[in-house]
Amino acid sequence: MTKSDYWMVDEMPETYRITSTKILDWMPLGVIMQTPRPLLMESVDVAVIGSGIAGLFLAVRCAKAGLKVAVITKKEISTSSTNWAQGGIAGVLDTENKESLEMHVKDTLECGGGHCDEDIVRSVVNEAADRINDLVKHGVKFDIGSEGEYDLNREGGHSDNRILHAKDRTGAEIERALTEDANAKIDDNFKILENWMAVDLIQKEYGDIRKGVSGVWCLDPSGLVHTLPATNVVLATGGSGMLYKRTTNPVVATGDGVAMAKRTGVDVRDMEFFQFHPTAIGLDSEGTFLITEALRGHGAILMTISEYEEWKNDGKSNNPDDLSYMHNYSSLGSLGTRDVVARATDAEMKKSGDKNVFLVTEHLDAESLVTEFPTITEKLEAYGIKMGFDAIPVTPAAHYMVGGVAVNYEGRTKSKGHIINNLYAIGEVACTGLHGANRLASNSLLEAVVYSNRAAEDIINNIDLGQKNRINSTPMWRADDLDVLIEHAPLRTDLEALRVTMSSDVGIVKSYTRLQRAKRRIQHISDEVEMIWKSCKPTQDLVELRNLIDVAKLVVRGSISRDKNVGLHYNKDLEN
Ligand SMILES: Cc1cc2nc3c(=O)[nH]c(=O)nc-3n(C[C@H](O)[C@H](O)[C@H](O)COP(=O)(O)OP(=O)(O)OC[C@H]3O[C@@H](n4cnc5c(N)ncnc54)[C@H](O)[C@@H]3O)c2cc1C
């Protein structure tokens, strides 16, 4: 953000200082179109950016405590990674069972490759039962087994069955329950602004983010930027899978929270640790969806195309596992951890030149597969692939941003290590220290709900309601003399170039030469986009591309600086 991006309120003509509840309500487009300039919204106690598990859980909690809350969300309320989560949420429900808790801690630490913050890991694992119970109170219905207990699954890296799930659509069930609760809460004190996008954070004192934030600039659906003054701002913007050509993430995952935070001087860390899911559907089209590793837990086997052909030519009489390339990479074969499987698959695809490998289920009971995995079965059918009968083409795809905005125990952000009191980051956008260098499956929904609750409590306990009328110091966006962006084609080309560069040079296996090449190419794209940014009014596409570029730079910078292969960071120049 540069100073020329905005005006102070005092510098604005009086007529543009529009305050009202009307602003929050003014969805009729005609009204917006006639309003020449911006647009100061009524102040809130909490501005929440994002409506996944992290944002909604916190928003509802704060609203129930009597705070005035606005949720800003880029698309529809349920457009989020949360809504797509399949496997489940990890947690030990019996808090008296110290051994089980310790096993969850140990699995998380092992997966994190020595980079986790052990105190944080313990605290999150110990809090899991309470937060899962909170979700149940919100109305989330996790699957129950035949004995009347929760049906607990196990995924790669977990030494015990501790994953609660709702078939293979756990995230959708969580999002449903939280959305219903949020919608029921809507009134003058609780607004959900769908199709509104946060563009940048407003600093209380320009150039010193340590003094805190005073609100958010938001782009409305008609293209106008509004100033939303807020006593507290919560980043709950999710991840950044859209950096890569193949991703399991929804289109909203453009790293906005990280980029907004970084631009104002907030600490961001560990961005080189990007998790690739080994089994996303690998058809020619770019659109992809994830095939949960629970399917491999159920017996599905990874094979290269030639291994599969060999198995087929032998009449499928052998166990396909005997032929799987995965035994060359892990003693666990197809059940190896995500990073090992993703790297092995990447290596095999590079060797053969094939566009995918196969996930084979023909040796398994088709009926039980269909019952256990209804969503995947349905999705596969849309591609003409029959679960239990056809080989499923899969490739690795960008899945989870392990790094992010550095936060403390309560989810408060930091700048050069100093805590920023009223800016929080929760969920995937945050880097708490739980995951270290690699995320254990199903620990992210848990982290999101634990930190969402902590941040909500911190806000509720510390809010100084006297602060909320200090809107005179909130600067207004200055875009009146900028052009309307007419041509979107250059943005598309730049986005494509960025995603190709990230996929080929900053992917699963990196090297210094490739990283330097990526750095140069991204800088070039950045220069082009910055020119458009400076001369045009913002659009959602433009803001997202600018954010992705900022995030890409952070991933490259982190990758160049990391001098040891650990967890998800793998640089072949650092091989022994
Ligand atoms: C396919 C898939 C399967 C997964 N399976 C599991 C699983 O089984 N278990 C598990 O623990 N984790 C899983 N994960 C990861 C987990 O779902 C996410 O880490 C978690 O849901 C993130 O929640 P969140 O609230 O932080 O972000 P999200 O749920 O991604 O929500 C982010 C929100 O922010 C909004 N937003 C972003 N930028 C802006 C902006 N500038 N202005 C306004 N709004 C904005 C988005 O529109 C969205 O509403 C999976 C992820 C994917 C993609």
3D structure, described in words:
Mean pLDDT is 89; it is low at 1-36. It is globular and about 75 Å long. The chain has 576 residues and is an alpha/beta fold. Strands 2, 3, 6, 7, 8, 9, 16 and 17 form an eight-stranded mixed beta sheet that branches. Strands 11-14-13-12 form a four-stranded antiparallel beta sheet. The longest helix has 24 residues, at 512-535. It has helices spanning 21-25, 29-34, 53-64, 98-111, 118-138, 170-185, 256-263, 294-297, 305-313, 338-352, 366-372, 374-382, 443-462, 489-505, 512-535, 540-561; strands at residues 6-7, 44-49, 69-73, 89-90, 163-164, 190-194, 197-203, 213-219, 225-235, 268-269, 274-281, 301-303, 357-360, 392-401, 404-406, 412-415, 418-425, 430-431, 476-477. The chain contains 16 helices and 19 strands. Among the domains are: 278-397, Flavocytochrome C3, Chain A, domain 1 (Alpha-Beta Complex), CATH 3.90.700.10; 481-574, Methane Monooxygenase Hydroxylase, Chain G, domain 1 (Up-down Bundle), CATH 1.20.58. Flavin-adenine dinucleotide binds at residues 49-55, 72-75, 79-82, 84-89, 170-171, 197-198, 236-238, 248-249, 252, 256, 290, 400, 427-429, 442-445, 448.
Can I get a quick summary?
This protein has 576 residues and is an alpha/beta fold.
